Amino acid sequence: MASIHSLGFPRIGHKRELKKALESFWSREIDEKALQSHAAQLRERHWRIQQTCGLDQVPVGDFSLYDHMLDMSCTLGAIPPRYEFSGDQVGLDTFFAMARGSSTQPAMEMTKWFDTNYHFIVPEFHAGMDFHLASDRIFTQVKEAHALGLKAKPVLVGPITYLWLGKEKDLQAEARHETQHHHDDSACHGHAAPAGNACFDRLTLLPKVLPVYAEILARLAELDVEWIQMDEPALVLDLPQHWIQALDTAYRTLSQSKAPKVLLATYFESVADHAKRLKALPVAGLHLDLRRAPQQLDEFLPEYPADKVLSLGVVDGRNVWRTDLDAALALVQPAHRQLGHRLWVAPSCSLLHTPVDLSQETELDAELKSWLAFSVQKLDEVAILGRALDRGVESVATELASARAAVASRHGSPRIHNPAVAQRLKDLGQDDGRRNNPFPVREAAQRARFKLPAFPTTSIGSFPQTPEIRKARLQNRKGELSGTDYQKAMEAEIALVVREQERLGIDVPVHGEPERNDMVEYFGEQLAGFAFTRHGWVQSYGSRYVKPPLIFGDVSRPAPMTVAWSTYAQSLTKRPMKGMLTGPVTILQWSFVRDDQPRERTALQIALAIRDEVKDLIDAGIGIIQIDEPAYREGLPLKRKDWDLYLHWASRAFRISAQVAPDDVQIHTHMCYSEFNDILPAIAAMDADVITIETSRSQMELLDAFATFNYPNEIGPGVYDIHSPRVPGVEEMVGLLEKAVSVVPAERLWINPDCGLKTRKWAEVTPALENMVEAARQVRARH
Ligand code: GLN
Ligand code: ZN
């Protein structure tokens, strides 16, 4: 019998029940007992779904009230001292203080889980710290599953991945309340490290953390657990050699204790480079992601050890498309012939990254729906594959035929293929999207046209999304506010935003983006080739979920998307109104993307659609256009060897969207993250006339990289942190600007906030921008 299993199931619930329960708990409407009971109900429901799909064992511990890495930190007792944890069990107060901050302490840092849009809480390590078992959560949940008559397979983040994803901290520096970045300790792993970081090697903590893992395993063995799943996705990254070697130590140690069988799970990329080591590891099984890296099977199958199970992930846990079951079968059949019952079949990774259940989508048209599979449907697919292996393909002939029909319908559908788009791509040929003239020529033309003062002031695009704006949008969607009235309400908002910027004296105003629900969804809704679900939520972090658009077909732009709003805004002022678009890479990155063509091709299609919009904005008289690419960096592949290829097409896609701008049209881009150093050449290759970036939280130190690299175009380093309600003073901003002037030629500098202002209140925005304009005045007087 080929076993079927799953690496994890979404936690959020069909109707986002977890979000509701958490938010009620945080606002004290329900107590801890009620929250825990909601959570237990969700777990039970999710286990039952998986049981019904025919899974032999259900994952336990994949559920989390916030994040599974945070759960792991609590289980291992890795609680930063500032949360003043004492006792033997981490309580919910401490747990949520770490996740979200408390009245006295900020939250722990959060970052993206590999190349997903899920964020985890980054473990903090300090030299000499101790670990101890500080949460019974996994045991409690195993008992819960057993009580329901289910076979539990606990899931833990493995020790190598856990340590790799954490950060070293210097406690003493933290205690001195140093908030400034300092040079001497910024060399950890070759990138800038914020305050309080120390350079000891966190791998030295392995011998301390292993006994706790061993204890957990022993206790799980006492609970009669047969299998546990150790997630080690870090193995797909380019880990330093001594980290890879530590794998042997770690799993040898763990195998010595009285422990359940360990399935070591890898996903998101290939681990082919470590095939030999992994096959020799004292674990009872390995899981491979064959969706992302099917070819790695060739490295594992030959002489696969007789004492090990091999679990193959052939159903995509990262996307929403129905599986080509024939192809999946063809992939697993040789392994099945060789391994028999030692072959397991599963989704490629945890289903955390796909929506819960397609059957809820009652508003999607039947054809499109027949192409999709969400978590529940993916488990059904896994079950069909399991049956095909066990009882022969005839036993599931109907299911296979239906999958085949869906795949064929999707591939042949005229809704997917737009010959005009294909022709445009073809005509593009190898055109690399360069503008007519190099930057110095364009800069001169733009200076002559706009006659902006030195250190021009601008903003990143959005202004406060007030409750009134959101209410109008909701009413409009419900049909309670007519299209005309909605438009009037948004125009009134734009007028207010423009008037305010005139009053403040902002040199390059924006319209404020009131009409946008979200910077990707707004465009997706107007582009052909996109679809939207009603319930396709996936967890981004904690109780924050996102509902990514679905790119199912060739992308084109049937009609202008922003021109009316931008020209209206321009009609209200003599200053150059900055048009505002989202870039091709960001739209791609924040959507579910079609899997029947390379990402590059989809990105180029979006780029051409954005280019149409750029052209129309220019024809309507808009002279400055910003194309936001905040997701440019997160599109980077997990393996460095793949970076160049990605950066090549990503920068090209951006250039293609901007290419139609004549010399005197100024193209801006915006990015907001703190790691630029390693991709600066590719950022320069985008060749935007102006780039605005987040820098205030790092005290402008990020600019050093731009200066060292000799970044050739204009640049607007953010002078204040929009993530905080704090209004920075004039002197503070002048101080930051002086730092900027010391590294970047003054004539290339712009003055702007770190990012868009939509999450802020007017009461914070007005004084902050007033101070920013005053700071600009003072800096101009000095230089
Ligand atoms: N123009 C967008 C805004 O101002 C940019 C948002 C972003 O960088 N994420 O909101
Ligand atoms: Zn931003």
From TrEMBL:
UniProt keywords, alphabetically: Methyltransferase, Transferase
Entry's EC annotation: 2.1.1.14
Entry keyword annotation includes Methyltransferase: yes
Name this protein carries in UniProt: 5-methyltetrahydropteroyltriglutamate--homocysteine S-methyltransferase
